[in-house]
């Protein structure tokens, strides 16, 4: 079992990146991307995952 899995991708990625706040995540895009490669994204709802991706990476 993944020790970082809480069911909330925002909180899980905050912990995985060592961020103090969720609002730090958009400033750590590279680190977030690397951590995304290590997790099973299917554990999160599609809606939450898409919200997370839009929040961190935005629509450019």
A few lines on this structure:
The chain is an all-alpha fold and about 60 residues long. It has helices spanning about 10-15, 30-35, 45-55.
Could you give the topology of this structure?
Blueprint: H1 9-17, H2 29-36, H3 46-57
Give me the oligomer status: single chain
Question: Quick check: average pLDDT?
Answer: 91
Task: State the helical fraction.
Answer: 40-55%
Which parts are unreliable, with pLDDT below 50 for 5 consecutive residues or more? none
Radius of gyration computed on alpha carbons = 11 Å
**What is the count of helical runs?**
3
Strand content: under 5%
Structural class, judged by helices and strands?
mainly alpha
Largest sheet: none
Order of helix and strand elements from N to C terminus: HHH
Q: How many independent structural domains?
A: 1
Number of strands: 0
Report the end-to-end length measured between terminal Cα atoms: 35 Å
Overall form: globular
Written overview of the protein:
- It is globular, with a radius of gyration of 11 Å.
- Helices cover 48% and strands 0% of the residues.
- It is built from three helices and no strands.
- The chain has helices at 9-17, 29-36, 46-57.
- The longest helix has 12 residues, at 46-57.
- By secondary structure, it is mainly alpha-helical.
